[in-house]
Amino acid sequence: SERVAATVFYTLLVFKDHSIFAATDYWVENNRLSYITSFGASNSKALDQLDLEFTLKLNSDRNVKFELREK
Fold this sequence. Notes:
Layout: E1 11-14, E2 20-29, E3 32-37, E4 42-46, H1 52-61
Antiparallel strand pairs: 1-2, 2-3, 3-4
């Protein structure tokens, strides 16, 4: 039987220090953006460190919806 791999859509998070993370989940909590990376690590950064314009563009170019939401 054929195995069909599940498609996982990553959201790209771009920060003002030019770092980019591929996240499987993300949320806003206490003015911080918390996220789970594509390799399973959890992290958070101050929300004001997110490059929102570039984050929106990179995800839009890949047809991935990006929206900030509280946990």
